[in-house]
Amino acid sequence: MVLAVKSEGLKIGYLDEQDNVLWAVKGVNLEVSEGEIYCIVGESGSGKSTVALAISGILPPHAVTEGELYVYGNLVIRGESRSYEKIRGRLVTYIPQSPGTGLNPYLTLGDQFYHVLKSLRGSTRKEAKAEAKKYLEMAGLDPASTLDRYPHELSGGMQQRAAIALALSTGARVLVADEPTSSLDAHLRLQIANLLLRLREEVKLTVIFITHDLLLASRVGDRVAVMYAGSLAEVGKLREVLLKPLHPYTSMLVDVIPTLGVKKQLKCYSGEPPRPGSNDEGCPFFDRCPYRFSKCAAEKPRLSLAEGDRYVACWLYGNRE
Predict the structure, then answer these.
(1) Contact (Cβ atoms closer than 8 angstroms) between residue 296 and residue 290
(2) Phi, psi angle pair for 235, to nearest 5°
(3) For a Cys-Cys bond, which of 154, 160, 227, 246 suits 46, CB 3.0-4.6 Å?
């Protein structure tokens, strides 16, 4: 098995006004196989987008890092050191939440392909145009009607497809999609999901799909990592996790999903995730967990094998002494 992305004890934080580190990601271990669509889900503030920025190599300069991160065996983060030479934009590429912000509003799509490919490969305009046509068609767009248009002349769905085509034209093998459908309606979300599935098969693409939409994740994903307060709560095959969630937080996420054609009482859960910099003693989900007991408050559970190939960070599946 070839690993496209691997992290060991990855921590990412930011300094506050008193130069204290507020950790947004707290010791995450990930293993993403080549050709896999790996979903990372969780509430806002869970740390999933920060992980996406780290893999893509676009963390802000003031970010603080610990642990290790590899992209196709290339060590890109080791402790405080970061090195993305020949990785960022070449081996791994990033699709932002809003496709409009990922495209230059002052350049036509054709010009954007030219500038990107000239920078990466020294391509001429003719070569860049040929590549643009290839990848726009792959993304389901008509080059004749889109190459000479500006981003604002395209619909939201077309912008997202154009952003994906531009990202793929770099030859990247890992696509990090950070909430790529959050600004689209249900029909367009499904179209983008189907596009990612098709691209995975056509170009052997590895996709890291960041989302809070479990229904969409179930449509595209192979495996899922559920994040809460900067840590992994549960990791496993996506359908198994959704059908039989083990961590109480995963159960909470599943309970609030409306299912088409199924009548069920949607539950309401109170509370909010702890803020970065809060006390790390005990389970981060303690205040909201209906199954908590004394050990949960005293000691933070580690992600460990619970059953099959499912990993869970919960004392319900550990020693309760």
Answers:
(1) no
(2) -140, 135
(3) 227
